[in-house]
Amino acid sequence: MNFYIVALKNIGNIFIKYFIKHPIVFSKIAKIGLDLKPSINNLNEKDLKIKTESTINIIEAIVRFKNENPNDFDIVFNILEDILKDYKNNPKTKEAIMSILDKINQEENNKQLKL
């Protein structure tokens, strides 16, 4: 359980570093995240048409964000790059992220079984 704290702290520090420098970028990212939540949730649907339409909506939103905010898009990729470096270079972060994703996957599978 301690490795969760290490991973969240490391990733949190990455986000805080960029948030302090670019708070408006974070508000834009949060808005697009909230706007995309229904499409992201639809990626779990069994219907291929729904999955495809949701994927297209997500891609369109990302492309629109990039075209409207090219500098902000670079910042997003810098954040992802820093997270990726931490993931690759810190075994505790990697283990915690994999464990968190596994737990999420198990919860999703349990939800599907209940349906």
Concise description?
With 115 residues, the protein is mainly α. It is built from five helices and no strands.
Describe the structure.
- The protein is mostly helical and 115 residues long.
- It is built from five helices and no strands.
- The protein has helices at residues 2-21, 23-42, 48-68, 70-89, 91-114.
- It is flat and about 40 Å long.
- The mean pLDDT is 84.
- How would a textbook summarize the main sheet? none
Low-confidence runs: none
Q: SSE order, as H and E?
A: HHHHH
Q: What is the first-to-last residue Cα distance?
A: 30 Å
List the helices and strands and how they pair.
Elements (H helix, E strand, L loop, with lengths): L1 H20 L1 H20 L5 H21 L1 H20 L1 H24 L1
Helix pairs in contact: 1-2, 1-4, 1-5, 2-3, 3-4, 4-5
Highlighted features:
mainly alpha, flat, 5 helices, 115 residues
